[in-house]
Amino acid sequence: MAICLATALSYGALAFCQNILHNVFLLYYVDIFVTVYHIDKLSFWLGETVFLVWNSVNDPLFGWMSDKKLLFTERVPSNGGLSPVAVVQQRLQQLGLVGPLFAFSFLTFWVSWAPAGLQFVCCLCLYDAFLTAVTLQHNALLADMAVSVTDRVRLSNHNAVASALASASVFASSAFWSRENPQAFRLFCVALAIVAAIGFMIFSHLLRSVYLDTERRHNAEPFSNHASQHEGEAGSIEAEVQVSLRQYIKQLSRHRNLLWFVAMNLIQVFHCHFNSNFFPLFLDHLLSHRISFTTGSLLLGMSYFAPHLMNLYFMQLCQRHGVYTIVKWLFSFKLVLSLFMLAAGPEHIGLLCLLIASNRVFTEGTCKLLYLVVSDLIDEDFVLHKRRHVASAMLFGMVAFVTRPGQTLAPLLGTWLLATLSGFDVFQHPSFQPLMTTAPISAFPRQSPGLNAPGEAKEALRQGCFALLVWVPAICGLGQLVIWSHFRLHGPYLQAVKSRRESPKSNWGMKDV
Fold first, then answer.
1. Taking the chain (513 residues) in consecutive chunks of 10 residues, what is each chunk's mean pLDDT?
2. Which of 100, 161, 174, 357 is found 20 to 30 A from 495 (Cα to Cα)?
3. Per residue in 29-64, is it b (16+ CB within 10 Å) or e — as a string?
4. What is the reported pTM?
C-alpha cells in the first residue's frame, strides 16, 4: 500500500511533538543541574551510572511488552492473532496515551523539588522511560506501515521536515534561558509541554483514522486481510509456535548483519550525544574570542535545524545509491575532515566553524538514516526466522539495548577526557559557562607549575577542546568504516529480502549471506 500525503504528514507531526521537547532536554539538562542546582561530581556520576543501566534495559523491556504477542515462528490462520493493520492501530493508540505522559516527565527537570542528586536520577529515569515508549512505537511504525524504499523515504522525509521545524524550540529557548532567574524558562517549558501533549493526542488519532481509511480502500476487510493469505496453510499447521525471550535473543545473536550494525551504531550514538553535550563548550573556548554572541547563537540553533534539512538531501541520495553507500560516504567525510583540521590547527577560524557545524550536521544526519537500516534489518529478521508478524518495536528495542550506553558514556568520557587533556574539571568550577557568552571566560583549569598565568590556563583549555574536537570524530569515523565494511544487507541481497517480505510465501529457505 502506497503511503498517502495525510499519513506522511501525521507521522511527521508526531516527530515534531517529540523533538520540540527532546532538543531542549539535550541542550539544558546537564547545564541546569551543574550550574543552577550545583550537583556534586559524585552524585552526577552515580546518577549517570544508574541512568546507563535503566537506559539500556528499558528498551528491550518495553519492546518485549509491546511485541511479545507478535513473535511466532510459523504462519497460522489469522484468527489466531492480530492483522498488520491492527498492530499499527494499537501502536498509535499507545502513542496517544503515552505521549502526554512523556510531556509531563519533561517538566520535572526545570523546578528543584528534591536534593540535586536524587532529582537528577529520578528525572532522567522517568523521562527516559516515556521517551523510550514513544520512540519505540513511532520508529516501529516506519517498518510496519511501509516496506518499499520509496514509501519509507517518504515517511522519513516528512519526519525530517517536522524535526527541522521542531528545532525552533532551540532558537526560542535562548531568549528565555537564564541561570540567575530561570522562571521565564520554566514557563517556556510548560508551554512546550502543553503543545506536545495536545499534539500527541490529536495526531495519533488522526493517523489512525487516515491509515485505516486508506487501508479500507485497498482491502474490503482490513483487519482480516491476511486471512486469505494463510488459508492454504491452515490445514498443514495445527498450532502456533510462540518464541520466548531467550529464543528470540538466541536468534538475534546469530543475525550477523544485526551484530555488525549495533557495533557501528554504538559508536554513532556516542558521537551524536558527545556533539550535543560539548557543542556549546567548543563554541565558548574555540570561537568566542573570534565570533560575536549572535553568530554563536546562530550556530547553536542551526546545529539543531540543519541536520534535518540535510537529511532530505541524504534521503534522495539513498534512493539513488542506497543507504549503505551514503552512510559509508558520511563516515569517510567525517574522518577526512577531522584529519584535515588536525593538520591545519586551531587558528583557522573558518575551518573550525565548518568542522564544529559539520560534526553535528552530518553526524545527526547519519543517525536519522540509520532508522532506515533498522527497518531493513526488521525485514531480514522477518524473513530469516519465518515470523508471522514483523516485531518492529522489539528489534528497535534490542538495538537500543546495545547502543544506548553510548548516550551515557558521552558526557562521562567527554568530561574525563577534557580533565585529562587540559586539567579542567567542570565540577570544580561552578562559574563554568557551557553556552556562548560575551563575557571573558572565568573558569580556568587548576594551575600546575607549568601554568603560571590565567592566559596559559585559558590556552591549555583551548588546546584540550581542540584535541577533543578533532580526535573524537576521527577515531569514531575510522572505527565505523572498518565495521561497516562487514555489513552485507545491501544491493541484490537487500532486494531479495524485501521481495520475500512483500511475498511471505516465498521466504521459506531464505538464508543469511
1. 80 94 88 87 87 85 84 51 78 93 95 91 94 92 85 88 87 84 92 96 92 70 43 42 78 92 94 82 74 70 76 86 92 91 82 80 85 91 84 88 83 83 66 37 38 63 85 93 95 89 57 46
2. 161
3. bbbbbbbbbebeeebbbebbebbbebbbebbbbbbb
4. 0.77
What nine digits make up the cell of 399? 538495538
Secondary structure of 377-413 in the HEC alphabet? HHHHHHHHCCCCCCCHHHHHHHHHHHHCHHHHHHHHH
Helix (H/G/I), strand (E/B), else coil: 148: coil
Cα 257–chain centre separation? 20
Please tell me whether residue 72 adopts helix, strand or coil conformation: strand
Residue 242's SS3 state is strand
Phi and psi (nearest 5°) for 79? -75, 0
**Domain extent listing, the chain:** 5-222+243-507
Q: What kind of fold does domain 5-222+243-507 have according to CATH?
A: Growth Hormone; Chain: A; (1.20.1250)
User: How far is the C-alpha of 208 from the C-alpha of 390, rounded, in Å?
Assistant: 19
